Amino acid sequence: MPLLLLYGKPNSGKSELATQVQDLSSMSTKVVSPDSLSFTPEEQVKRQIELFRSIYSFVQQFLNDETLVIVDCTNHTKSFRYELFCVARERKTRFAVLVSTNEKGPNEKWAEDIYLNLVSRQEQILEKSEWDNPNFIAAEECVEYLMKKSDKIVKRATQIKRQINVSIAVFLNNVCQKIISMQRVTDLETTVQVCEGVYFDCKKIYSVDELQLCKTEFIKFWMDEHRNNQENIDMGTVFVEWLSKIK
């Protein structure tokens, strides 16, 4: 049965996606996470190698013909995603990555310093790397892929669209994170560089919820209006203008 990796920042809704996959799937499932292995957020930073080895051993043990294994953690390093992909390839089973694009930030569980530490280590999905593909942002499409038997179920055009959606979401996540970080250390009215060639004139404090809603609406707008122009620098400029309209 397939191997599914969740990918995203801490406190970004990965466990909710894992639950959705279990509810939608008719397969027997096994979920491994730092919580299930009794790793606290602080230990996920200090004992990262040990955590990865424990997850790897779990996948080795339970990935078989009858079980869907879900790895519910940040999966933030390319090398670890590659190692798990190799297990799936060796077992000749399906493999996919489900991306959580939420941006909730630190909370009671995730102290700010630990949260930012893990976020700083996050290595982006590589669209040309087989160990990061196929990737999805919707649990329904991901389950549909994992439960199909034919290798041809993901049509090229649909797959490209999904990859573009993920790339946009990851790019906007980075922009929003820079804005959030900037707000913690600068005065209200200031201009900051949020990405190469794009500057943001911040005249108010944006909440995480405001940025999340703005990002979601912007992705829909961008895909409808700018399908043939996917350059990140242009997207950043338009997104900053979009943000400036929030009162």
Automatic annotation (TrEMBL):
Pfam families in UniProt: KTI12 (PF08433)
Key words of the record: ATP-binding, Nucleotide-binding
Molecular function terms from GO: ATP binding
Gene3D superfamilies: P-loop containing nucleotide triphosphate hydrolases
InterPro entries: KTI12/PSTK, P-loop_NTPase
Family assignment from sequence similarity: Belongs to the KTI12 family.
Protein name per the record: Chromatin associated protein KTI12
Species per Swiss-Prot/TrEMBL record: Spironucleus salmonicida
Lineage: Eukaryota, Metamonada, Diplomonadida, Hexamitidae, Hexamitinae
